[in-house]
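We emphasize that the prediction below concerns an isolated chain of 80 residues; any contacts that depend on oligomerization or on bound cofactors are therefore not represented. The input was used exactly as deposited, without trimming of termini.
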Amino acid sequence: MKFNFMQVVRLVGMVLAIAGIIYALEFMERGIAVWFWVLLLGIGFVGLLYTFRLTQRRMAREKRERERTMKRSAKRRQSK
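Result of the prediction step, given as a token string:
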């Protein structure tokens, strides 16, 4: 599987966000720190879903294009 640089950055950010949430819940009183890490985790998750969908669309488009070119070449061979 091919990894995009931004996917790796988002994944690392999500791991840090989980660690941040655990740290903030354990050692800090309730406040903005917990919500900051929750927001960072959410942004990373949405970003990963978005890039996954873009990758799937691109792969499907390339597959359709390959099938079309194969059909065209097969029709040209038959007509000759």
